[in-house]
Amino acid sequence: MGSHRKNDKTRVKSKTRSTRVGLHFPVRRVHRHLRNSKHANAPVYLVAVLQ
């Protein structure tokens, strides 16, 4: 009665930016820190260089 979904197993997990690019470094965390500074242009590139 409480759930509107018929089957929870059919739900697809969303892919993170790290897994899309094939990196192990957290792209989202780097992007957050870059956004607070003035270098928010290329977090995926920076993570690839760091890795």
From TrEMBL:
Extent of Basic residues compositional bias: 1-18
Alphabetized InterPro entries for the sequence: Histone-fold
Domain of life: Eukaryota
GO-annotated molecular function: protein heterodimerization activity
Stretches the record annotates as Disordered: 1-24
Signal sequence range: none
Name of the protein this chain belongs to: Histone H2A
